Input
Amino acid sequence: MKAIINTNYGGPEVLELQNVEIPIPKANEVRVQIYATSVTRAATMMRTGKPYIGRLFMGFSKPKNPIPGTNFSGIVESIGTDVSLFKVGDKVFGENIETFGTNAEFVCVSQNGIIAHLPENLSFNEAAGICDGALTSMNFLKNVGQLKKGQHILINGASGSLGSSAVQLAKSFGAIVTGVCSQKNMEMVKSLGADYVIDYTQVDFAKTGLTYDLIYDSVGTRSFSNSKNALTPNGTYISPVLGFPLLMNVLKTSIVGAKKAKFSATGLIPLAELRELFHELIAIINQEEYHPIIDRIYPLKEVPQAHSYVDTGHKKGDVVIAVR
Output
């Protein structure tokens, strides 16, 4: 099969299209013929090996999982002898967080992993990025930030994959949503349900005098220190982008102060908990309260170009890789 191989840490040039062996499913695994996957900001960070703390999990000198990518959508092509939840021909989507490997034509996934039947109201391309943007934001809004109905949330980076997902999910939770993005994306963010939208090039949300119960910095461009003036007295700052300053603030605010900084590595939470979040997300999708945003679609051979585009920091929603 054709697959993207991540040969080293570095720029997009470390990604090479190669021919490799088709994986063989274990007894409890299904082999999915991948129709679509995605390139995420997290994937570009994994490619570079930065922040360096991530190498504790990804490999010190080079990626331990040579085929990148975690998200997938496609059709079950083969099943192991113990598989009972899926059959050949089923349309599925999900995330392979243990061994990656979805920037390829096939991937093997445990039937008890993050995999489900494809909702009828989603295409393969639409489903390709859900387990990065929407599932990560689901974890941050529900578990980390504990967002409640009627609370005010500000989402920094509201037009990206995580941010556009968070706007829709926060509205489904009954929150009052303020999105922060560039002027050209303001109408899109409003269309997703944001009650208010701020153009970050014109207004610094931390200097408006307005406060929020929760600030979700989905892109990691604002620190806890320069955001805390915009938090209510017991407000919380959350971000999936871990750096040393955020780590120090998480530790400090866990001990002192009413305003908190929090972080979570969604891929490292217990599988049972992640599966529960995944199925809650599917229920929201089935109620048509969530609609994926696709920015660009690239073929598999152009994964390096997709990484270059994501590196610009200007993508909207998901960047999809159409494998088939």
